[in-house]
Design goal:
The chain is α/β, with parallel strands linked by helices. Helices cover 40% and strands 20% of the residues.
Length: 123
């Protein structure tokens, strides 16, 4: 199991409540502090954003999508973004790369894949 910094706050953004809660529970199980958001717009309006060490976000959501979120955070020197999607295409991967996304995971993914990506970003 990866070793995570105990003070890292991870913002999880997904409009699917079940996914949001399960990703949050996974991250919490390794000692990370987690803040859950049902939309990118909710995260962007939150003071929690300034405390986040990393953002894990779905791509397809109502309002601001994951690619737009990554672009905005990169422009504001915000935290690194890991995007997750069930609909990975070469075009979407390219858009994510251009938006400054640090990691891109296709759903479903193994829990250790996400934990490893976060560990790599935080250490």
């Amino acid at each position: 199991m990866p070793t995570m910094p105990s003070t890292a706050l991870i913002a999880v953004v997904d409009d699917d409540e079940d996914v949001r809660i399960s990703v949050g529970a996974l991250l919490g199980s390794v000692g990370l502090d987690v803040a859950l958001f049902g939309s990118a717009d909710d995260l962007l309006a939150s003071s929690t954003l300034s405390e986040a060490a990393c953002v894990v976000s779905d791509v397809q959501m109502p309002g601001t999508d994951g690619i737009q979120l990554a672009r905005q955070l990169r422009a504001e020197a915000g935290p690194p973004v890991i995007l997750m999607t069930a609909f990975a295409t070469a075009s979407l991967r390219q858009d994510a790369e251009l938006a400054g996304v640090r990691r891109f995971l296709q759903k479903p993914f193994a829990p250790d894949d996400l934990l490893g990506e976060i560990e790599g970003l935080l250490n």
